[in-house]
């Protein structure tokens, strides 16, 4: 399977105490359970997902991009594995392409990060939580795709300036425009002519700061994302 | 490229002149509030220190001027198409509306880039003469003879220029990295161009062309070898390299089932590649005289 390693890894104990081995869907509940149990055990633990590095803005930004690509890859993988019954002709092929692109982006960033990947030492990867989305209809799937792709574009637009090495900047730029193409597609399939929805009155596509983006993706991540090392502008 | 002109201007300009704020203020007034405020905040760092960092700053101006020339080219293409009388646009009203929106975006980009160049104390290069048939005003055979009578041919040229625009911005970002505001603005312009390119490609697909919203090895080629093929040169790369020049070992990564086309199709699709200034300039030259 293409995504074995993604599902097989477990989360780092420090980041998500006692969830190792638990079913993915239960992780949010498990977290709540952990918190209660911790009342009997005052040892402080860090239950935040730390995706940055204190000493490297480049690896922080790459990890941030990596988390976003993981999220998108997991989303499309779920959709392609269990597609809605009312997809129109050609739409499953598009969703499969999108899945492939995001898998490639995810693995590309993972290779670039190597041991600096925020999850490099996780025993089991956490599972993203898509329960807030409607994935049983094409309307729901494409609406969600639109949302995730627009977030991705705005995230790249807003964060790339913090990269201090041009090699990494070029890496991210290669991905950013592909995400914008995805976003335009996701808009168009639901409503012809809606591709420009995010382009403002000065002709600029949207940009969001990492803190704005984290707030938007937190519903899909079963652990609180730490913003400690993320750029605030 | 107007490097020589910029160098000449630079040599004649003294630092005090560069700090004069009156022209900058005037230029900024025509921008939207957000842009004006942000530009005013950003420029003193990047550009008022011109003499000390002439090389870097010159490159930023040069990049902005190249972008401006590409935006003008695209804007002129859409303006001429929208002025065609008779049944040029298809019945589907979203087609014309999309081209109108793209024209508007290009006009906004032109204002933004012109003001950024003016606000830095430099002068944007003069607009060129355009010949979208590619004959250079009748001096050579046409590349797009029916560009304003055959809507599909118009879309092919629009796709070529929008895809090239995405690639050209991507090629410039490294030269803009010393100025956070300008870099972010360029990336936001870059994303707009990518949405344009995707929409044009989808319009072509609706009209029966074999094409995806992103450049793909499965697209039917729309280029002429030795002429317009520069727009897609290297876009189908099967390999990517990390900043330390290590190739990314896609064949070893969990990205697809053995025997799938992910390596030969997904990988080239998943990355948009940059165009160099020289490549973008050569492409511009095909349609200007």
UniProtKB/TrEMBL annotation, chain A:
Pfam families per the UniProt record, alphabetical: Ferritin_2
Highest taxon of the lineage: Bacteria
Entries under InterPro entries matching the protein: Ferritin-like_SF
Organism classification: Bacteria, Pseudomonadati, Bacteroidota, Cytophagia, Cytophagales
Protein name, UniProt field: Ferritin-like domain-containing protein
UniProtKB/TrEMBL annotation, chain B:
Taxonomy, superkingdom: Bacteria
Pfam families listed in its UniProt record: Ferritin_2
InterPro entries tied to this protein: Ferritin-like (IPR012347), Ferritin-like_SF (IPR009078)
Name this protein carries in UniProt: Ferritin-like domain-containing protein
Source organism: Hymenobacter sediminicola
């Amino acid at each position: 399977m293409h995504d074995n390693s993604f599902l097989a890894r477990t989360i780092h104990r420090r980041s998500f105490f006692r969830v190792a081995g638990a079913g993915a869907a239960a992780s949010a509940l498990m977290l709540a359970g952990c918190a209660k149990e911790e009342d009997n055990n005052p040892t402080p633990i860090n239950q935040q997902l730390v995706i940055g590095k204190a000493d490297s803005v480049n690896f922080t930004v790459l990890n941030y991009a990596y988390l976003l690509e993981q999220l998108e890859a997991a989303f499309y993988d779920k959709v392609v594995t269990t597609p809605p019954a009312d997809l129109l002709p050609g739409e499953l092929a598009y969703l499969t392409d999108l899945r492939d692109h995001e898998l490639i982006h995810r693995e590309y960033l993972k290779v670039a990060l190597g041991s600096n990947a925020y999850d490099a030492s996780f025993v089991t990867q956490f599972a993203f939580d898509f329960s807030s989305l409607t994935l049983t209809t094409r309307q729901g799937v494409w609406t969600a795709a639109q949302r995730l792709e627009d977030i991705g574009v705005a995230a790249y637009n807003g964060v790339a300036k913090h990269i201090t090495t041009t090699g990494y900047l070029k890496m991210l730029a290669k991905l950013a425009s592909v995400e914008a193409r995805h976003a335009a597609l996701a808009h168009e399939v639901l409503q012809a002519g809606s591709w420009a929805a995010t382009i403002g009155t000065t002709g600029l596509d949207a940009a969001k700061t990492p803190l704005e983006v984290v707030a938007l993706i937190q519903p899909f991540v079963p652990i609180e994302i730490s913003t400690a090392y993320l750029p605030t502008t | 490229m107007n490097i020589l002109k910029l160098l000449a201007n630079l040599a004649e300009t003294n630092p005090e002149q560069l700090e004069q704020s009156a022209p900058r203020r005037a230029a900024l007034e025509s921008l939207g509030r957000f842009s004006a405020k942000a530009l005013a905040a950003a420029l003193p760092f990047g550009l008022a220190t011109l003499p000390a960092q002439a090389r870097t700053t010159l490159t930023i101006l040069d990049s902005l001027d190249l972008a401006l020339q590409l935006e003008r080219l695209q804007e002129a293409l859409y303006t001429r198409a929208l002025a065609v009388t008779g049944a040029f646009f298809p019945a589907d009203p979203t087609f014309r509306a999309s081209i109108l929106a793209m024209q508007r975006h290009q006009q906004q980009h032109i204002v933004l880039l012109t003001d950024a160049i003016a606000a830095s104390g430099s002068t944007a290069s003069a607009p060129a003469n355009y010949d979208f048939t590619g004959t250079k005003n009748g001096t050579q055979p046409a590349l797009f003879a029916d560009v304003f009578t055959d809507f599909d041919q118009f879309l092919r040229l629009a796709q070529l220029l929008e895809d090239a625009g995405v690639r050209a911005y991507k090629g410039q970002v490294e030269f803009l990295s010393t100025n956070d505001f300008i870099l972010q603005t360029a990336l936001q312009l870059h994303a707009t161009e990518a949405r344009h390119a995707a929409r044009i490609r989808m319009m072509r697909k609706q009209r029966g062309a074999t094409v995806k919203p992103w450049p793909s090895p499965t697209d039917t080629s729309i280029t002429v070898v030795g002429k317009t093929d520069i727009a897609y040169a290297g876009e189908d790369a099967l390999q990517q390299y990390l900043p330390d020049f290590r190739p990314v070992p896609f064949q070893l990564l969990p990205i697809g089932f053995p025997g799938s086309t992910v390596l030969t199709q997904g990988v080239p699709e998943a990355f948009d590649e940059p165009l160099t200034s020289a490549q973008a300039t050569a492409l511009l030259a095909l349609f200007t005289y």
